[in-house]
Write a structure and sequence with these properties.
single chain; 443 residues; alpha/beta; Rossmann fold; Helicase, Ruva Protein, domain 3; Zinc Finger, Delta Prime, domain 3; 5-stranded parallel β-sheet; two-stranded parallel sheet; 19 helices
Amino acid sequence: MPRRTPAVTPDRPLFEDQPNPGAPLAARVRPAHLEQFVGQRHLVGPDGALLQVVRPGYLPSLVFWGPPGSGKTTLARLVADKAGGAWRQLSAVTSGVADVRALVAEAQARREAGGRTVLFIDELHRFNKAQQDALLPHVEDGSIALLGATTENPYYELNAPLLSRMRVYRLEALDAEDLTTIINRALTDAAGLAGRLSLTDDGLSALLDMSGGDARQALNVLEAAAATAPDGSALDAAALSTAAQERLLAYDRAGDGHYEAISAFIKSMRGNDPDAALYWCASMIAAGEDPTYIARRIVIAASEDVGNADPRALQIAVAAMQAVEMIGLPEAQYALAQAATYIASAPKSNRAGAGYWAALADVEGQGRLPVPLHLRPGTHRRLAREQGHGKGYRYPHDFPGADVDQQYLPDALVGRVYYEPSDQGMETQIGERLRRLLEARKG
């Protein structure tokens, strides 16, 4: 049978002339033209990187990466509208490989007819490997221009071959000025609240604070407050707080918020700032982070960043981890706070870890070298004596100071120094003792 060419479905406009009055406020006041877009000046400002790329008739495949409510979907629709082409959208949650193939067949037919297809996939990172692989050849040959939006780091979540054929643009959380512009538009726009309500100064401040840079969240709270307010009302902080019920923390235990918060927590402890360490610890707990994960990071910091400058740090960190496992929240917050502030306040040294990695580099570079004969079990020690290698192993406790000049490293590494104690905390004393031993051996 000859191959059947799929019918090309009619191109539908990206934006309707009249917004659906039943749509959420955030959808009703979404900008219809790129010039109306608010925020992300580094992308769409006068010298914006994105405006240098997108033009009528040309649209490369793009990934918009940023936090919720930063404008990823809106920006994708607007650049697609500027470039031209048929807009198609797939759900990363409900669409399968068969859906991708059907859409690609349609796009290829449209291309043969001289048209182009723009495929938008929200939360692109949720497409599995098979789905991403199904898109790859068609992105590469230009059958489709793929626009993806994701809250996750695409360099971690997308297949490298697909990502290499796309340009990544990072969006930031909106600042107070941009959010204020969007809120005022929603209050006055005919498609929005049409001027029937206003915000008091403290109401605006509260709305900005609870939105956390997320325009959609700000508009959702505003819409909820407006739903029960009489015309002419001036919404204050109390009304908005009631509508919001509770502040939603912008945090995803499997996403960027997770990695960014734990990174800030670790760096605060390493940087000797107990106040910042407490803040990031509290922010993660409040957002529902697993406390055992936080405890494990404290244990790692105790060895990686404090080390032998204060060996008690590891004891305290391990005790905190055990406390978390045994008693759980909320009481375990005290143990986390104690351990985090101790690590942040302790003297720092990474010399033990640095020494280990240097030793590992020699192991990987030269392989596992032979153990000197006098360090091997009994029969080998006798062999060492018979071959004239001294008197074999010498028991340090038989010598003054429980130390004797003796080779412990493999022959090929004699003289190599991996561990060089710092001048911080208890490691100062460790360094002094090692220097005294070395001088005694030489003397």
